[in-house]
From TrEMBL:
The lineage of its organism: Bacteria, Bacillati, Actinomycetota, Actinomycetes, Streptosporangiales. It comes from Streptomonospora alba. Residues 12-25 have a biased composition (Basic residues). This is Uncharacterized protein. Residues 1-43 are annotated as: Disordered. It comes from the Bacteria.
Amino acid sequence: MNRPVIPAPQKTTRRRPRTAARRKATAPAPAAPQPRETAEAVASDRPLLSWVLVTDDSGRTRPEARWS
């Protein structure tokens, strides 16, 4: 019961031009997002939880929750 081995079809791939890399070099740097409102501006009697990104001494960035 030996079946004949059928070779897999060969894939032909084309290289795409790297237009994204060229666009990144000429595009201006995106602006950093601004906070929508400050904690003082919000009139609420409950504390608010906000998330900030904290960078430690070794350069790693992690999210951290802060109450305000």
